[in-house]
Amino acid sequence: MICKNCEKPLTSESNFCSFCGAKVILNRLTFRNLTYEISQRVFDLDNSFFRTFAQLIVRPEMVIDSYIQGVRRRFLNPISHLGIALTLSGIIIFVMQKVMTPEMFFAYGRQLPEEVAGKLYNSIYDYSSLFFILYIPVFAVAGYLTFNRKDYLLSEYIIAYIYILSQWSIFLFPISLMVLIFAPTSYIDLSFPTLFIMIGYSVFAMQRIHRYAAAAATLRAILFFILTAIGYIGIIILFYIVMFMTGTLELQDFAPQQ
Question: What is the number of alpha carbons within 13 Å of residue 223 lying toward its C-beta?
Answer without folding.
Answer: 14
